[in-house]
From TrEMBL:
It comes from human gut metagenome. NCBIfam families: PRK05813.1 (NF004476). This is Single-strand binding protein/Primosomal replication protein n. InterPro entries: NA-bd_OB-fold (IPR012340), Primosome_PriB/ssb (IPR000424). GO terms for molecular function: single-stranded DNA binding. Gene3D superfamilies: Nucleic acid-binding proteins. The lineage of its organism: unclassified sequences, metagenomes, organismal metagenomes. Keywords: DNA-binding.
Amino acid sequence: ARAVARNRQERFFTFPLETQRLSGTIDRVNVVVRERLLAEMPLEESARLCVIGDVRSFNNRRGPGAKLVITVFARDISLSDEPYDRNLILLSGTLCKPPNLRTTPMGRDICDLMLAVNRHYGRSDYLPCITWGARACETALWDVGTRVSLEGRLQSRSYIKVLDTGAVERTAFEVSVLDICRLSAPDD
């Protein structure tokens, strides 16, 4: 783990956590952990871990790279003896951008959603989510302001971004939605 920040005399560290899907694809997310929690659970490379926490986002306005940075803020870390990786995220929030329905090069319908998840103290995290197939067509009809609850996984994927200076490989972090429920429409 490497140090990333100091706040109120407390240091925070970050480390990459990988989970393997049933397909064999590896998803990677950066975990932010308080120094105090890290002292209770020293990390070793390749250790199997259970991390429980909150998904956080912030806009990186400095330098190159990702503009929307997504991390997991660890509340608890323990060793895991589970034989398979489990990547589960539960969210409730509000759609804050119009849904974007599109078709992948493989002909699959997907819908991009941006979910605002409120935190304490008036802060919000903005999390890109994707729905698939019939769910994509359904969620594409929802309006900004719709409250939803969803279950999914936090995934990472590489893509090529074409810039004036040439093409660069980037990584996108998003929630791949397994189940989603509309809690209320904007007018409710």
